[in-house]
């Protein structure tokens, strides 16, 4: 082993940020009603505990970091933008319209694998879902 351990400093910094966010959630939820504070306090404590566990893991096991994500970073950014757009459009166009648009956008963006080619959507959608991972052409079952 060569001198310094290879620690995941970016992971530690990100987890420390989540500890701060969780602590802020706990602090600001103290003014809520007793029943209204249950959910935010539960999430705040979970954030703090899991982030501390991540820091502890990165500190005690240097070099045991997570592999870099494979796939398109552009699609991941588009996924986040689609979700943000959906949240912003909720009040403007309503839940149903913004939900339908978000559904279509998320279906187009969130598939990181290869699309299957299926020519008869209603009766073969179940058969095509298994072909997303393999990248092969979908074989639809015959009509009854």
Mean pLDDT rating: 79
**Can you count the beta strands?**
0
Give the overall form. flat
SSE run: HHHHHH
**What is the number of domains?**
2
- Tell me about the largest β-sheet: none
Structural class by helix and strand composition: mainly alpha
The number of helical elements comes to 6
Helical fraction? 55-70%
End-to-end distance, in Å?
Answer: 66 Å
Radius of gyration: 22 Å
Low-confidence stretches: none
* Share in β-strands: under 5%
Helix/strand layout:
Layout lengths: L8 H20 L9 H23 L12 H21 L1 H15 L11 H9 L1 H4 L10
Helix pairs in contact: 1-2, 3-4
Please describe what this structure looks like:
The chain has six helices and no strands. With 144 residues, it is mainly α. The longest helix has 23 residues, at 38-60. The N and C termini lie far apart (66 Å).
């Amino acid at each position: 082993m060569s001198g310094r351990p290879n620690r995941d400093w970016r992971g530690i910094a990100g987890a420390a940020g989540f500890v701060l966010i969780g602590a802020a959630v706990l602090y600001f939820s103290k003014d809520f009603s007793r029943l209204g504070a249950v959910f935010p306090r539960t999430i705040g404590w979970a954030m703090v505990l899991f982030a501390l566990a991540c820091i502890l893991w990165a500190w005690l096991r240097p070099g045991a970091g997570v592999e870099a994500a494979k796939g398109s970073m552009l699609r991941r950014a588009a996924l986040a933008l689609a979700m943000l757009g959906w949240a912003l459009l909720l009040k403007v166009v309503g839940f149903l319209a913004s939900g339908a648009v978000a559904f279509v956008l998320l279906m187009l963006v969130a598939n990181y694998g290869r699309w299957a080619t299926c020519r008869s959507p209603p009766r073969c959608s179940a058969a095509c879902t298994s072909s997303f991972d393999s990248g092969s052409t979908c074989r639809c079952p015959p009509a009854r």
